[in-house]
Structure formats: C-alpha cells, structure tokens
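Project outcomes to date are best conveyed with an example. Our students and postdoctoral researchers have been running inverse folding experiments weekly, and each run begins with a structure described purely in tokens. The record below, which covers 272 residues, was selected by the lab manager from last quarter's runs and is presented without edits.
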C-alpha cells in the first residue's frame, strides 16, 4: 500500500511501508538503498531528504500497462523503470487495464522474465492476456501447439510470492491448438493376369483437415485419406491417416513456481 498523498506523514509511516526496524533514521530511506527501491521518482538517492519526498511513495514497483501490445516481458518493463534483477528485491505490481489485450504471436503473450527470486510479484488483469492459436497442419502434418498466455520463468529458491488476479470481466486464455492435417489420398492402377498393373492411376480422396481449437482447447484431428478405383493388387500410393490436432497453450504456466491464481473472470486452459 502506498503512503498517503498529503497531510501528516511520519518517520514511523515510512518504517511501516518499507519494513524498517527501530531505531529509524531518514538516512536509511534513500532510493536505491536496502529499504527503498528506485521506483519512487520523488525520493532522492543522496543529499537532502525530507518526509515530504515520500508522499505517495510505495515499497512496490508499480507497472501499469494501459495500451494493447504483443508479447510483453515484465523484467524488461521493470528494468526500464529502474529495477535491477541481480540486486533488487522490490515487490512488483503489474496492472493490465480494462480494454487492454496482451497477445502472443510466436511466443508467450506475457512472461515474467528472470526477476530476482526474492521479489514478490502481483499481476492484476482487468483486460485480456491471450496466447496465440497454433498453426493448422498441412497434409500429413500435426497441428501446432497453442501459445501460453502467462509464462513464469523457471526459478529456484528465493522468498518471492506470486499472485495472479483475474478480475471480473477479464480473461487469461491459452491459445487453441492448430487443426491436425488431412491424410494423404491413396492411388492404384488396374490389373490383369497377363500384363500386371497398367494404365490409368486412380486416385482416392484426401482426408479432411482438423479445425483449430478455441482458447484453451486442443485442435481437432484430421481424418484419413482413401482409395478410389483400380485393383487392390496395384497400389501405387497408400492413403495415410489424419494427423492429430495441436495441444492448447497454457493459461498459466507456473514452471514449478508456487503461484496463487484468483479468478473472478475467465481462465481458459491449464494453470499448472
């Protein structure tokens, strides 16, 4: 919670917000020190410092995403705001505004990046975070896997806690799998007992391609091809079976992290 924006403010207020223990001193609260991150523009890193510098200051780095975009990386956004992953344990709050869509095109729609393992992370989604739809398979090809909506980088150790809040009317949706490819058609020729296989090649029918799945749904399988006329003894090309549809992307891929997911909106796809 941020400090008050006006009125009385005390050293004790600063200590509560930034987790300082007594005795408290103003010299402990310079930006970039052990208590205060660099996310509060009004707080100096050295020199003169007063309580008034801390109006609306917060112990967390708040990242507001207010425009639709593709494939956002939280670490990249945090670094641009002054966060240093190697040393900074500042809590991070990401707010995705209503009406904003973060979408994937070839990789995860939203990923954490390799944040400091001791940084708490809270993601509040009021808009949509959507993975991409996998590609449909061509003849004899599997459907492509859908993209993940929210991807946590693998992390070991650390004390950071991770919370994802999907608010009312918001979406967190893994991409649908691509449709499975159609089976190839078979072919064969005529036959007689004297000359063997000869003449026209009779082609069968291709199978039907599968359809891409909706958000969080695997693509459907293609169907197999078939033979047409000609002799069963004169096969020139065997039909093939339909190929499987692609798996859906994850709504939330935790990568062995402990992530609390609070859903008051729509989550489509696995959260594991």
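After processing, the design step wrote out the following sequence:
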């Amino acid at each position: 919670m941020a400090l008050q924006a006006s009125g009385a403010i005390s050293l004790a207020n600063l200590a509560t917000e930034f987790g300082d223990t007594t005795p408290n001193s103003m010299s402990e609260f310079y930006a970039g020190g052990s208590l205060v991150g660099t996310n509060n523009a009004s707080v100096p890193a050295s020199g003169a410092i007063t309580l008034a510098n801390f109006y609306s200051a917060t112990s967390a780095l708040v990242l507001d995403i207010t425009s639709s975009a593709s494939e956002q990386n939280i670490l990249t956004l945090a670094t641009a705001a002054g966060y240093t992953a190697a040393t900074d344990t500042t809590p991070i709050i990401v707010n995705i505004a209503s009406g904003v869509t973060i979408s994937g095109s070839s990789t995860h729609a939203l990923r954490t990046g390799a944040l400091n393992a001791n940084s708490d992370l809270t993601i509040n989604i009021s808009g949509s975070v959507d993975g991409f739809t996998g590609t449909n398979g061509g003849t004899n090809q599997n459907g492509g896997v859908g993209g993940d909506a929210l991807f946590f980088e693998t992390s070991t150790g650390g004390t950071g806690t991770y919370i994802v809040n999907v608010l009312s009317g918001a979406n967190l949706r893994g991409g649908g799998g691509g449709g499975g490819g159609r089976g190839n058609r078979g072919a064969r020729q005529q036959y007689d007992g004297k000359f063997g296989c000869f003449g026209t090649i009779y082609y069968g029918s291709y199978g039907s391609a599968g359809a891409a799945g909706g958000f969080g749904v695997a693509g459907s399988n293609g169907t197999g091809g078939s033979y047409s006329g000609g002799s069963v003894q004169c096969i020139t090309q065997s039909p093939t079976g339909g190929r499987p549809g692609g798996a859906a992307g994850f709504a939330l891929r935790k990568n062995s992290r402990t992530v609390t997911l609070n859903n008051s909106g729509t989550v489509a796809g696995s959260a594991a």
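The longest helix spans residues 11-18. The CA atoms of residues 5 and 56 lie 5 Å apart. The training component of this project remains on track.
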